[in-house]
Write a structure and sequence with these properties.
This protein is α/β, with parallel strands linked by helices. The protein contains 13 helices and 27 strands. The protein has an 8-stranded parallel beta barrel, surrounded by 5 helices. It has a 7-stranded antiparallel β-sheet with strand order 2-13-15-16-21-18-19, covered by helices on one side. Strands 14-1-17-20 form a 4-stranded mixed β-sheet.
């Protein structure tokens, strides 16, 4: 008894000192991850964006993160050719280079009237998607959902609340037939229902679809927003894992995958003023913004660890400040009106859930806390990777890991407790090459420390905080309190090609485009100090004198000379 007690006290002492271990295991069967990403609503809003916001924030941040899965608003039955082309133009600048798999959905399908023919509606959707895929070559549109959160017109959850699920089934069956008639290889998602306070709502919705329309469904999906809970509630991690395990297993019964179509962490709605709020937790509780990021990332990791195919954060960029939507004679009026036609409620709704701001009044485009944790999660946990099970006895740690086709590995560790030393053991899964340990390449380390959020004036992701050397596929590190730390061998230690042709023409700094396929964006310097990040090949400098230089940043965050 004394020996057992002594061992127990020793273990308690080690835990108090912060000694922990994470074991990364080889899965019995290999299952693939489809990627983290965002709701990318911004394609149809590009006409409203100033050039600096578009080039130095939207396109630049997308290029840096290069999400491999995304949810987009396009393919509406009533979408005009001009609107379709605007989406395709944005696709060319973003999703094409990143190889992003897309699932498309209308923000809200038009109101359904008595006597409407589902086949007519489905035919219009199929024609629009056929144009995007076959004419504009947007070939990564692989999923389509009839309606966002079962909305019809302006009524949220219309199909369920109006007891019209039979109509929902008829429209999905019509879409299934129309896609095949057009020769489109697009899977139908169902039901895209939003879940807030009662997770069982998702179980009921997906069970209904599985029972009534499984033959036309390609994958199951739902949204989950955590309402009315605190982000320092450490019990949520267990709830997340139980919830997603149940959803994935239910989808598996139908031989389908499950997709987390949207996720986020919101406050409970109280008094809301005169506008409708769609805001993240930290917008209402800014004093906890640094920690709310960890809780949100936990939700995404739990979905991946329990077998979800992909997970989509709501959302990439804030919507602009509200506008009065009306048609008119000026180009500005027309741009706002067309954005409204694409389903954006710009006249009565604040939608501020991005990873960076779009404040149209004072031109504030700065980042939120999320960018510096979710950005690396999206960048490193991309599609085509094998998910690796992780075990730990420390209930303050939330680990996740993936193994890529190129044999690189990425690991994330969320620490909800005090700073601690952690040993990460990869020996049970790591495949050897020529008898060498798989982790013979140093792991780059990226840290989101909630006590010292690494804000950047240009919204650049934080650089690596050194490297870690593994010995025999094991390594020991110290992780900060309330932090998220990434370790990865998914990089090439190279120097990007130098930028050429740098000169000033009429107050504008210009340069030649980088020829490298690995290039992502440029950093502009004056007298050695960074003054911008952009995807453009020009930057207005006016009459400000100085020594200017431009450097390329590649997909591994290496910076050129």
């Amino acid at each position: 008894m004394k020996k057992i007690l002594t061992a127990s006290l020793l273990l308690s002492g080690l835990m108090a000192l912060g000694a922990s271990e994470i074991t990364i295991e080889k899965p019995y069967f290999r299952w693939l991850w489809g990627g983290f990403g965002f709701q990318n609503s911004e394609a149809n809003l590009t006409a409203l964006m100033p050039d600096d916001f578009l080039n130095e924030r939207v396109l630049k941040t997308f290029a840096e993160l290069s999400p491999t899965f995304a949810r987009v608003y396009t393919g509406f039955a009533d979408q005009s050719r001009e609107q379709l082309d605007r989406f395709a133009d944005y696709y060319d600048k973003t999703f094409r280079k990143a190889g992003t798999t897309l699932y498309a959905v209308p923000c809200a399908m038009p109101a359904i009237r008595e006597g409407d023919d589902p086949k007519v509606y489905a035919g219009k959707v199929a024609k629009n998607l056929s144009y995007l895929i076959k004419v504009r070559n947007c070939r990564k549109i692989r999923f389509y959902c009839l309606s966002n959160e079962l909305m019809v017109g302006d009524e949220w959850d219309w199909f369920a609340r109006k007891n019209k699920m039979d109509v929902y089934k008829a429209y999905n069956e019509a879409l299934y037939d129309a896609f095949r008639a057009e020769g489109l290889d697009i899977k139908i998602l169902a039901t895209d229902k939003a879940v807030t306070t009662k997770p069982e709502q998702a179980f009921e919705s997906l069970e209904w679809a599985r029972t009534n329309m499984n033959g036309v469904v390609g994958a199951y999906c739902s949204h989950w927003y955590v309402y009315g809970r605190r982000t320092d509630d450490l019990g949520l991690w267990k709830e997340y894992n139980t919830y997603f395990d149940t959803l994935v297993q239910n989808a598996l019964k139908a031989q389908k995958r499950f997709i987390l179509g949207e996720y986020g962490f919101h406050p409970a709605y109280g008094k809301r003023g005169v506008m409708q709020d769609d805001v993240s937790y930290h917008m209402r509780q800014p004093e906890t913004a640094h920690e709310s990021v960890l809780c949100k990332c936990e939700l995404g990791l739990a979905a991946m660890n329990n077998g979800a195919f992909a997970a989509v954060d709501w959302s990439f960029v804030d919507y602009p400040d509200p506008f009065i939507i009306e048609d008119g004679d000026t180009p500005e009026d027309r741009k706002i009106y067309e954005a409204g036609l694409c389903g954006y409620k710009l006249d009565h709704k604040y939608n501020k859930c991005g990873v960076f701001r779009w404040n149209s009044v004072d031109r504030d485009y700065s980042s939120y806390h999320e960018l510096y944790a979710m950005g690396h999660m999206v960048r490193l946990f991309r599609k085509g990777a094998t998910v690796l099970p992780c075990r730990t006895a420390d209930d303050m740690l939330r680990p996740a890991a993936v193994f890529n086709r190129d044999r690189s590995v990425s690991i994330a560790v969320i620490n909800r407790g005090e700073a601690r030393e952690v040993t990460i053991d990869c020996t049970s899964w790591a495949p050897r090459t020529d008898g060498k340990p798989s982790l013979h390449q140093p792991l780059r380390r990226y840290v989101y420390d909630s006590a010292h959020v690494p804000f950047n004036p240009f919204n650049d992701l934080q650089p690596m905080s050194g490297t870690v050397e593994a010995k025999g596929d094991r390594f020991t590190v110290t992780v900060p309190a309330k932090s998220m730390t990434f370790f990865t061998t998914d990089y090439a230690d190279v120097q990007p090609v130098a930028v050429t042709g740098v000169k000033i023409v009429d107050g504008t700094l210009v340069w030649d485009a980088s020829p490298s396929a690995d290039h992502r964006y440029y950093r502009v310097y004056r007298d050695g100090k960074q003054i911008a990040s952009t995807v453009a090949t020009s930057y207005a400098v006016g009459t400000v004198k100085g020594t200017y230089s431009v450097r390329s940043v590649d997909k591994w965050l290496n910076e050129g000379k």
